[in-house]
Each structure stands twice: as C-alpha cells, then as structure tokens.
Amino acid sequence: MRNLFTILIFLLPICGKAQITLAYLDSLLTVKMIGKEQYNKKVIQLFSGQIASKIETESDPVFGAHAAHGISGTNISNWNTAYGWGNHASAGYLTSFTEADPIFVAHPSFAITGTNISNWSTAFGWGNHASAGYLTSFTEADPIFIAHVAHGISGTNISNWNTAYGWGNHASAGYLTSFTESDPIFVAHAANGISGTNISNWNTAYGWGNHAGLYAALSHNHAASEITSGTLADARISSAASWNGKVDTLSNGARYLASDFTTSSVTAVNTNLSFAIGANESFVVDVYGLASKAVSSTGLKIAINGPSGCTATGFVETSSNAITTRLAYQVSAIGTLGSAFSTNIALVVPFSMHVTIVNGATPGSVTLQAATVTSNTATIYAGASMLYKKARPL
User: Fold this and answer.
1) 334: domain range?
2) What is the 3-state secondary structure (H, E, C) of 194-259?
3) Confidence class of residue 271 from pLDDT cuts 50, 70 and 90?
C-alpha cells in the first residue's frame, strides 16, 4: 500500500487536482484490505483512463519544421549499424585517378560516360526492337501520292528547308526591293547596260569551260589527219588512216594511202582505198600504185570488191618478175583475185587497175583488195591512189 500511495502522489501532477483529491486517496488508504493483487488492479484501472486522456498529438510547429521531425526508428537503427562499420575516412580509399593505360585510352569504350550507360540501360528496358515487327521496307503504290508534287521531296530537301527556315524570315530583313541608279559616273560606264539576263548567260557560258585552244581560227587550213567526220564523207580519214581527198564533186573523188598497206593473208583483204556507191549507180575507177613482195618471189594479187549484185569490167597492168616484164590481165568479176605480180624478191613494181563498176539495188562500198600468194608479207606502198568518177546512168 505504501508503494501504491507513492505512485498516486507521483501521478497527481499528470492527472490534475480536479480529477483526484487527497481525501479520495485517504479513503482508498482506509479501505478494507481486499487483497494486494485485486487492489493494485483496481488502482491501475482507475488511473489508466485518467493518463490516456492526457496523451496528445505533436502540434509544435517548430519541431514539425525541423529536419529531425521525419526521423524514424528504422533510420536510427540503420545509422547505428553504419556507425558500427567504423570510420571510412581512415580506410585509405582511392580519392582520385588518371587513366594511363594506352590500350584502354585508345579503346572506343574509353569515351563511355555514365550518361551513356544510363541511356543504354533505359533503351535496354524498352525491349528488343528486332522483334517488334517494325516496317523494314516499303514501296509507295498510292497513285495519288505518286502524282503529287511532294512525292519527289527528299530528306536532303527537308534538311535544306529546315536550315533555310532557321535563317529567319527574309521578308522582314529590309532588303532593297527597287533601285534607280543616279550616279552619273556609273550611268556613263559600259557596265551600266549589263542586265540580269546578261549575267545569267555569261555564267552559263563560263560553265561550258575554257574554249582556249579547242577551235581553229576563222581562216585556217586542215591537215588530212584532222578530218575525221562530217558530211563530207569523201574527205574523211578511214580507220586505217587513208586520206580521202576531193577532186571534183561528191560524185567524183580520190582516195590515197597515207601509209603502207601490208598483208600476210593468202585470201583477199580490204585495203584503205574505198568509196561509197549507191543503189544502181555506176563509176569508172582507176587505181595506181607501187607494190612488192619482200622475202619471196611468189608475188601478190589484187581485186576490186563491191556490194552484192555489183559487176566489174576492166583490166590490170603491172610487171611480173622484172620491171620490164609487162603483165596485163582482165578484170571480169567482183572480189576475184587476179594474176600474181612482183614475182621477184623485193621487186617494187608499178600497177594500175581500170574498171567500170555497175551496182545493183544494194548500196555499199567499192574497195581495192590484196592478198599475198604465200604467207610472206606483201606491201602496197603509201601514196597509192583510187580515182573514181560517176558515170552516166545506162
């Protein structure tokens, strides 16, 4: 009972004088003894209600605003645990570092930053896009879009337009929109009359490149080797470098060998002496030249060839095994080799052919042909000529 009385006296400041009086305490002390355990329980029940009514919720604004206001029991437990790990300041951890490994510095991963890693991790979290079924190819088949002017817009166009947009609105830039020249010095200058069209044309001409050295003077002469094409077919150089000179009109002309013609073929081969013949045309043809067989006495042969249906009538004059040994034979067919001539080693002999060519319905070319009798090389020398003149229709 003494201990219980002490507790009651201790609780007086908490419960307040209005709730319990000393007289009431005195009556409790004089109550008939009902057993220690039951008495203590009765007193505790009495005061538990009185104490509970005095417990309040924290409303102090100073403490509520303090940083310690949110500290929980878990925080305190964790901090005590961390304190138990000891002072890390004395653990000797690395506080600075400069990468000096040349292999790692040269590696692409050297430039990887924490931001890169964070971004890549975020991207990884988006999942594998390879399995997302995105469109990988596409061919535009909409006829309306294909016909639209926007169909030809490229990524480069869009990039350029965005760049131009970034330059700002030039309409508000205050550029000069009109001007009248009043400077008397410039008005009197030759450049005063230059127009935008002139400048555009001159820029176009500049784009054609430097013409210096490309053209001949208005008054000039051409070497035979310079005439390689054009409407004057009778004046062309053939692929074998023969010179085609004009003698009269386009119906009359001459051909000359600009260099030696050689052959080792035993069948007829076209020389560079040739001219064009039209359908149903007739020409008188005269061929003159020098020829030889260098290393054998078998000689060479010549023929005149023309289009299918063409006929040739005439003769050949030359020398056989000596310059004084005259040889003549008739030409009666197109593409037929005649008798062998220059039948002595290295014997250079003159030859001439005189034929009348009558063509059929097929246009083409009349050509002098040559062949060696054996496989040794035969030569018709440069300067050999073919003269032709169109005959009156029969």
Assistant:
1) 228-390
2) CCHHHHHHHHHHHHCCCCCCCCCCCCCCCCHHHCCCCCCHHHCECCCCCEEEECCCCCEEEEECCC
3) very high
Give the chain's domain count.
Answer: 2
Residue pair 368/271 in contact (Cβ under 8 Å)? The answer is: yes
Q: What is the pLDDT of residues 23-58, one digit of tens each?
A: 444 555 544 445 555 655 665 666 555 555 555 666
**Phi (first) and psi of residue 304, to 5 degrees:** -115, 135
Residue 302 falls within a domain, yes or no?
yes
Provide the pLDDT for residue 30.
47
Identify the DSSP state of 129: G
Token pair, residue 394, equals: 């029969």
Q: What is residue 391's DSSP assignment?
A: P
Q: What is the phi-psi region of residue 328: left when phi exceeds 0, alpha when psi lies from -120 to 50, beta otherwise?
A: beta
First-to-final CA distance of the chain: 170
Query: Helices 36-52 and 2-15: crossing angle, nearest 10°?
Result: 10
Contacts of 13-18 spanning 24+ positions with Cβ under 8 A? 14/50, 14/51, 14/54, 15/47, 15/50, 15/51, 15/54
Alpha-carbon gap, residue 134 to 136, rounded angstroms: 6
- DSSP letter at 54 equals T
Q: Write down the pTM of the prediction.
A: 0.40
* 3-state per-residue secondary structure call for 336-356: CCCCCECCCCCCCEEEEEEEE
Signed CA dihedral, 116, 118, 120, 123: sign only: negative
**Contact 292/349 with Cβ under 8 angstroms?**
yes
Residues 6+ apart with CB under 8 A from 333: 311, 312
Residue 158 domain flag: no
Task: Assign residue 254 the CATH number of its domain.
Answer: 2.60.120.760
